[in-house]
Structure formats: structure tokens, C-alpha cells
DNA sequence: CAGGAGCGTTGCAACAACTGCAACGTCCAT
DNA sequence: ATGGACGTTGCAGTTGTTGCAACGCTCCTG
């Protein structure tokens, strides 16, 4: 809508790929060097880009700080965190909290496993949307049309032999998840890692977030992990209750 | 430099404080609602802001993804990480990596303590610049004039009785750190937490990053923590070697 | 050591894009 | 039913943005 801002913001993903100099930025933006310079300067003043010693530009520190601050202000996160921590204390495994936003699903909180073997994930990182248990829950709640549209547009990378292979399979899986009210990822992302997940709902019943417990095969089998399902669902429901305002927020013992 | 972009970017920190509606944004920007609307729309198209169900705006998912991507492209981080992990395996304590950027010092990597008691910190979070050991190292390396300018502009919050109280004290501390080539924070940020830190230098000898080991009193005393100093310094030197290209990057055993 | 290429930077005039206004639509509360 | 609050849109004025050309600088080369 605003050309100038549009151009300026287009610089960010460009720099995310790696540092670039003025000429490169101007070229890829399709504008004159002087224009690119002024845009970069403005971004610089706001700390979004940083000029390293070799004069090239890269993304700046304030970007991290902003993402950080925004993350900490998410109310679901704040409400959910103590429950995630308590769940982690009980079962010892990695606990994740994720939300859906315009085509992406991303982790917004994580409590690390107490076992030495940990899985790779990072808060803020978009999740493997076609296989992750939390992603299935979040997408399964979309209205039919949207769900189909999203499914068609996705890529279906075969992380493992058990990854969701294509859109029809994904839609079937979403349908199943929608009906049963919980989801799993059994080695669909990493061969040896399984997850069970449950939805967190707002006052209107819509899924606003999803949480999961993940553990590698070497620690517990998939079947053993599934025995945690009731606990995970209870925790999610408790969080739903607080989030939707039904439960007065107190030191609620759960389960 | 560019008014339009400047205004648009000013929206981001504003939204970082919490969600806001169109009117609030327009007011705080000092522009007409319609102008604010168009700026927000542009930010929205780029995924930097998100419109939640109550129509209010908040920071968007792409911001996290960008911060994430930028983080992973930092070469110091990539080079340093295995060394930080190895150091953590040896001593068991929390290990941090931090860089300085335009007045802020922020953590860009962290390996968690293996002890149950952990300290609060988060990757991407700006550090307590007046007391943190890594911050002292990074600022101590600035040229005299800049160092003084920075010191004058800072706030000196008294986190504890041992926090750096004011600019002169800070400058003295920086001078000391500069001479000895390492730094500590003994309860200056949190009463019971101590850190030892060492600088990582680029090919030109300038400090490009700093790393630290932190542990609470209840696990090890300050004196015990200080016995780790040689190990920390060796690790930092090894990373310096790789970063500056002096050491061919291989599975370098350190110590 | 001089010459040239490459890059970032600045002042300026032309113009496109941005701004603020006012009017409209919608939703919610009274 | 009615008023108010809020988001949204088309429009005309003009401000802010653009691309150009020229300059300064550094680095490399003959």
C-alpha cells in the first residue's frame, strides 16, 4: 500500500539471507543506489539493520529485542507457561507451545527435557507444518475452505518415511485430528522423535494455540508416550479455562 | 531520513509494548488515522504486524522468523557454538555468548546449565550492560572517546549492592577489564549469581564477541568459579583463532 | 607513483506518492 | 431504534521521495 515502506521492508528478508552491500540491495530492490541508501539509513536508525565493519549491511539487534518483547507480551504464553513447566516436571520431556498465524505455525514457548537427549527446536522458529502435531491441531480448526486452500499451497517435504506425503493425505489427517481432538507426530519429522499434542481453546471454542510433549524413542516408546495423552489434554484444558476467563486464575492444581 | 518509513518503523516498538488499535497507533504517531491505517497495512503485508481477532494489531510472526534467520546466519555464533557446548559439558554451568551492537549488548547463544538451578536469560535479550561480565569486555574494547560517551549515556540501575553505581566507576572497571583481558560479575546483577567472561577477538585484534560462564552461589562459590577462568580464556582464544581464520576449522580439541 | 575503477555519498529539480480531510459503513451499547 | 466509536475509502493538495549527476574516497593496477 505504501511504496516507500514496502520497499524498505523488502530489504529485511533480503538481508536475512546474509549480509549485502548497498549495490546488491539497490539491484534486488530495483531502485537507484541513492534510494536504497536512504531506506537503509532509516532502517539503521531504528536498529533494524546493522552496518558491519566491512560496510555491508545485515539485520540488527533491535529486531531480536522486538521479537523478544513481543513474545513475552503474548497473553496465552504467559498463562500457559506455569502449566507447561508443571507438566515438564511431571513427565520430564520437552514441552512446546505453538500458535498459528497467517500460514505459519511457530513455537512461542518451550520447556526443555530433563533427559540428556534433547530435540532441536527454537522459540520463534516456524515448525514443520505438514507433520508437527501442534500444526495439525491448529490447521484442523480452520474452516473447511481455508483448510483446503492452505493444504494445497503447502510443500510436503519427506523428512522421513512417515512424513505426510501430499495435500489429500494431510487433509485426511486434519479431519481425523479434528474429530478426535488431539494429535500425534510419530516419527514424521525426525525418525526417532514422537509427540502428542492437545489444543488450547478460547472462549468461543476456537483453537488459539496447541501444546505438545515430545520425546525420542530412546527414552520412551511411542506407546509409552501415548499414555501421557490424558495428562496433556487435561493441562491444555486447564489453560483453555484460564485463557477464556472461565477459570479464575489461581494456583490451580491440575489433574 | 525517510519520513514514511520512519513512521512505519516507529509502530513496531509501540506494538511491542502490547496490542493497540488503529486510533492508538495514529495518536502515538501523531498522524491521521488513515495514514496509520496505510502504514499498518503495509507492515501487515510483510507479516511484521498481525491483526488479532479483536481487530487490534500486534507484532507478527515474520518478525520472529526474521530474527531467527538472522541469528542463525551470524558466523561467530556458528563457529563458537560447539566450543560453548564442550565447555558446558566440562563444567556443567550455563555458558553465554554475547555481542555488542550500537549501544546494546545481547546474548546470541546460550548453553543451559546441567544443574537444576538455572538463571533467567534468553537469547536475543539485551543484557544488563552496566554489570554483566560480557558487556564489560565488549565495551572495554571501544576507543576511549566512545567508551566515555557510552558510559555517560547509560543508566546505572542498582540491581544489587554490588552493581556498578555510576559512570566513573564503570569506566574504572572497564579500564581494569581492558588491562587484564577478562571480566567478572560477582553478584552485580543477581545477588547470588557470579560470572567469569573472556573476549573473542577478530583478525584485527578487536573484540567481536564475549563469552561467559555463570553459576549461582548455591552450586559453586565465586572463588571456585574463578578457577574456571583459564579454561574459559582458552576456549575464547580457540574461538578467536577459528573466527579470525588463523586456525583451520576442524574438530579442535581445546585445553 | 599516477591513473582508473568501484563504491558510498550528497544536492537538486521533477514528479510521484503520501497525507489529511470528509464522508460512508458497520458494529456495539444505550 | 439511535447515537457514538471505530475502521475504511476516494480525492485533491502538496510534501516527501525519487533518480540523476557529480563528488570524494579507497583500493587496485599498470
Automatic annotation (TrEMBL), chains A, B:
<protein>
    <recommendedName>
        <fullName>Glycerol operon regulatory protein</fullName>
    </recommendedName>
</protein>
<dbReference type="GO" id="GO:0003700">
    <property type="term" value="F:DNA-binding transcription factor activity"/>
</dbReference>
<keyword id="KW-0805">Transcription regulation</keyword>
<feature type="domain" description="IclR-ED">
    <location>
        <begin position="62"/>
        <end position="245"/>
    </location>
</feature>
<keyword id="KW-0010">Activator</keyword>
<comment type="function">
    <text>May be an activator protein for the gylABX operon.</text>
</comment>
<dbReference type="InterPro" id="IPR036388">
    <property type="entry name" value="WH-like_DNA-bd_sf"/>
</dbReference>
<dbReference type="GO" id="GO:0045892">
    <property type="term" value="P:negative regulation of DNA-templated transcription"/>
</dbReference>
<keyword id="KW-0319">Glycerol metabolism</keyword>
<dbReference type="Pfam" id="PF01614">
    <property type="entry name" value="IclR_C"/>
</dbReference>
<dbReference type="InterPro" id="IPR014757">
    <property type="entry name" value="Tscrpt_reg_IclR_C"/>
</dbReference>
<dbReference type="Pfam" id="PF09339">
    <property type="entry name" value="HTH_IclR"/>
</dbReference>
<dbReference type="GO" id="GO:0006071">
    <property type="term" value="P:glycerol metabolic process"/>
</dbReference>
<dbReference type="InterPro" id="IPR036390">
    <property type="entry name" value="WH_DNA-bd_sf"/>
</dbReference>
<dbReference type="InterPro" id="IPR050707">
    <property type="entry name" value="HTH_MetabolicPath_Reg"/>
</dbReference>
<keyword id="KW-0238">DNA-binding</keyword>
<feature type="domain" description="HTH iclR-type">
    <location>
        <begin position="2"/>
        <end position="61"/>
    </location>
</feature>
<keyword id="KW-0804">Transcription</keyword>
<dbReference type="InterPro" id="IPR005471">
    <property type="entry name" value="Tscrpt_reg_IclR_N"/>
</dbReference>
<dbReference type="GO" id="GO:0003677">
    <property type="term" value="F:DNA binding"/>
</dbReference>
<dbReference type="InterPro" id="IPR029016">
    <property type="entry name" value="GAF-like_dom_sf"/>
</dbReference>
Amino acid at each position: 500500500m505504501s511504496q516507500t515502506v514496502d520497499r524498505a521492508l523488502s530489504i529485511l528478508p533480503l538481508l536475512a539471507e546474509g549480509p549485502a552491500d548497498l549495490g546488491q540491495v539497490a539491484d534486488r530492490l530495483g531502485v537507484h543506489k541513492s534510494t536504497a541508501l536512504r531506506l537503509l539509513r532509516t532502517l539503521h536508525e531504528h536498529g533494524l539493520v546493522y552496518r558491519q565493519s566491512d560496510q555491508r549491511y545485515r539485520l540488527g539487534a533491535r529486531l531480536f529485542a522486538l521479537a523478544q518483547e513481543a513474545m513475552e507480551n503474548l497473553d496465552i504464553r504467559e498463562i500457559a507457561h506455569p502449566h507447561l513447566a508443571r507438566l515438564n516436571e511431571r513427565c520430564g520431556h520437552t514441552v512446546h507451545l505453538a500458535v498459528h498465524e497467517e500460514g505459519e505455525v511457530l513455537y512461542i514457548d518451550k520447556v526443555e527435557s530433563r533427559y540428556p537427549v534433547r530435540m532441536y527446536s527454537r522459540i520463534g522458529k516456524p515448525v514443520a507444518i505438514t507433520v508437527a502435531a501442534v500444526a495439525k491441531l491448529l490447521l484442523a480448526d480452520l474452516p473447511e475452505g481455508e483448510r483446503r486452500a492452505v493444504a494445497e499451497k503447502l510443500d510436503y517435504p519427506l523428512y522421513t518415511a512417515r512424513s505426510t506425503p501430499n495435500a489429500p493425505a494431510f487433509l485426511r489427517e486434519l479431519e481425523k485430528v479434528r474429530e478426535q481432538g488431539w494429535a500425534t507426530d510419530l516419527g514424521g519429522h525426525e525418525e526417532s522423535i514422537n509427540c502428542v499434542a492437545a489444543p488450547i481453546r478460547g472462549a468461543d471454542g476456537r483453537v488459539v494455540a496447541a501444546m505438545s510433549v515430545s520425546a525420542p524413542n530412546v527414552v520412551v516408546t511411542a506407546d509409552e508416550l501415548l499414555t501421557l495423552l490424558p495428562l496433556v489434554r487435561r493441562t491444555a484444558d486447564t489453560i483453555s479455562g484460564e485463557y477464556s476467563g472461565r477459570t479464575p486464575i489461581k494456583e490451580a492444581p491440575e489433574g
